[in-house]
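[scheduler] slot 2 assigned
[scheduler] job type: sequence-to-structure, two independent chains
[scheduler] chain ordering preserved from manifest
[runner] begin chain α
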Amino acid sequence: MARTGADLIATLPSTPGKTRKSDRFLAELKTCDRVVFLSHVQPDPDSLGSMLGLAHLVRLRLGKPCLLTQDGLVSRCENRALVDLIPIDLEPLAALQKLPGDAFVMVDSQPGTGRHTTDHGRPMAAVIDHHVTPGNLQGVRYADIRPDFGATCTIVTRYLTEQAASIPASLATALYYGIETELSGYPREATPADDEALNLLFPLANKDLLAQIRNAQLPQSHFECMALALQNAVVCDRFLFTWIDPLRQPEQAAEIVDTLVRFDGADWAACAGVYEGKVILSVRSGKANARAGELLREVVAGLGNAGGHERRAGGCVTLTDRSPEGLVKLRAELFGRFQKVFQLRDETTRPLAFS
């Protein structure tokens, strides 16, 4: 007999008599009129799945209306497929009409990290995140920050199971894919909690939807961007660096390093791409305990913001000089900073694919 969501939830361990985090989260929202969910700029599957899961829980347990917002673009093809196929209804944050009874909940990010394009202008009722990037939690009534978890969707799955909440197939698909993308690459940044969540969600997920999302079709601009990245890529010791000007979409920097980090001649891959007055940075590593987020913050210190995980990190530098000469200078400065922070030998620098 097939196991239902309720059957699977019932197999998870419980903690009788102990105040659960999901209870505290829901308690903070009892008196509001509407819950508004926010995430970081260019929301990824982990943030999208987390907003969707928490909104489902709030509607189910509190009967409150919920609004999921979108800060910036959702342009990566797989992410766009996730939004369109689930589907996930998103309100552009810049167009948000704030109401007096709104409670704001931030997921997969923290206030004051520089990962947002629009100031929400209100203190957070709750912040739920798994990043080590330090944020400003002053005034936040409830915070659940678990950097030992591989994905925010894992935390949200815990909340749903603690509350014995139903998990529809579409939601299970979004949560599963959110966790899967955060744990991609080798070595996996996964904990037993992440694997427990994956094992719970997979039987409930729509496998056809998962396949469509994972294999979303790619536009010509994807291959143009990849060709430019390969043309500009250099290897210094076991560090691969490339520069793209312009990026068609901000998420392409992450797509590039997801591919380039698999080069067997490097332990690190970094991409810097020019997009609308900013340089988008993305870093990946194939090493365990790489401290990618911490190291990228060192690279951009005084120039911009950065953060991330052990093997995955992202950042942003605002351009002060957009002239061709200014961009050449910034490209050289960023590469020089990578060389200094990662202790790379300049004399080993060579093209990756073109001479």
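[runner] end chain α
[runner] begin chain β
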Amino acid sequence: MKKLLIALVLVMGAIVVNAQTTPVKVADLQKSITDNIAKDYVGFTIKDATKVVEKNVVTYNVVITKGTTQETLCYDSTGKFLKKMGAKAGVTKEAPKSTTKPTTKK
């Protein structure tokens, strides 16, 4: 069991060393990133952004929201759009279903 725990700690340490994330202020994002979001994601607002450095490659992950929808977009170091990483939508609860049968009057 100890060997498994040690191996897990070493693997997690290697992952942390390989990818470093740093929060970025929305105001500090490159103009090309904010322009792309304004053009292609009308009505969305930037919630937060992070700078990711992995194997000497810099990317920016930008979380945008509109209502209950949240998406994460990935940009390269020059501000070029790379990919959409995911979309999440808020869950709305349905009204509880009635367990009683409707009665009819005769």
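[runner] end chain β
[qc] chain β: Residues 91-96 have pLDDT under 50 and may be disordered.
[scheduler] slot 2 released
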